[in-house]
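Please check this one:

***
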Amino acid sequence: MLLNLFGSDREAMSGVDTAWLRMDRPTNLMVINGIMFFDGPVDFERLSAVIDSRLLRHRRFKQKVVRSGANAAWEDDPDFDLANHLHLVALPGQAGKAELERMVNDLISTPLDFAKPLWQFYVVENYQGGSALIARIHHCIGDGIALIQVLLSMTDKEADAAVATRPRKPRFHAGGDDDDLFMRLYRPVAKMYTGMLKSYFKLIGTGYGLMMNPSKLAGYTQTGLGLAEGLARLTTLPADPRTRFKGPLSTVKRIAWSESLPLAEVKHVGRALGCSINDVLLSCVAGALRAYLIDAGEEDIDGLDIRASVPVNLRPESKLDQLGNYFGLVFLSLPIGVANPIERVYEVRRRMEEIKGSYDAVIALGLLSLLGMLPDAVEQPAIEYFSTKSTAVMTNVPGPREQIYMAGSPVRDLNFWVPQSGEIGIGVSILSYNEHVNFGVMTDKKLVAEPARIVERFGAEFEKLVLVTLMQHWDQPPDPGLAEINLALWSLMHDVEAES
């Protein structure tokens, strides 16, 4: 643990977590923001007891960050007080969605206090006749998969569960179905590189990244070649084109969230099109971004591609209940320039297949580990360089498949917003909960002042795909010529609409 650098009462931070810590800057705070919605009130005292017994069992939430040169460590906060992290607040005026958005906007633009453990919860007691819980947790504490497990450990399947109930050992909520929602990128890595990842995580645990130990790859000749080729491709990738989504950033962020899409309908559309659920959702994101750019007067849209940095979970199931960051990144090129929504979803599918067998995610995790152990003067230019390669961060996180309860109150819905690094100014988050899919968007105010104009287009893009799939037999296997058939159907409907 390299404790000698800090003293026996401190725990050295891993290289990867240190890298995320040092990415924090006024124009892009490395804080994951989430929200729970309730139809009724939340018992504040009971919630306090749940947090005390379940959240604070993770020592990390009672520790603050201390730095020494290029290194960072966790230290128990001798003055820890839950009252400094759990707040009861109320909305002004109509206490509706507009007022809640303003409150979240103010919070996400405010840095966390580094003199205390890096998290904050806010219970909004009067939202739309019910209530809401806003959570803010610094990325150095954990990634999305880790934090969703922490969230689940604080919830129950029944309203009357005991406060001190010991949470079950967490597991992925995505099952073995190849069409499952959020495992499309995780599963190939987990299956193909299991041996390498085991060795890799052992190296991470001792404070060394993959890139610091190339000799460890001696037994993986093919893997070593793939890593070398991937690293060369990653470092020579050209900068993403300049659009209204990319430019100088401010210190003010804006958020928006969508109405939920029924997961069953998304599954049916994917089956009818012969695509995965992920292909369908990412195609809707690309279509929504395209529609926004057109309405904003962006020129030369046709043929335009913009890249999204997509986190790929590399966390083995044995580490699901551990905090920290265990994910890499891949660059997904979104076909913004494809106008036909059917053609677009098939193009997304093709590009996802290209990513499927790449080593990019493992390389990214290794680079982050290495950067976290180098001086900040080296990390910051590297982060700036790699952030020019993409326009957005886009992440998928699997949430609970069934109704859950927080402190005895039923959770109606969930949403979250992913932070962006370097000069990236837009983040798109996709979260499943209780057989629904939710979209959240965070933007820099200087680039996109009203992210709701993007969010409101997700549903419209999905409806375009529904129009075609309504003409398919959803309970039958896809026809080999399905892509051509669906493209023809869309062209026909588009022509009829134009004539009318």
Notes: The first strand starts at residue 10 and ends at 12. The mean pLDDT is 79. Residues 125 and 131 are 5 Å apart (CA to CA).
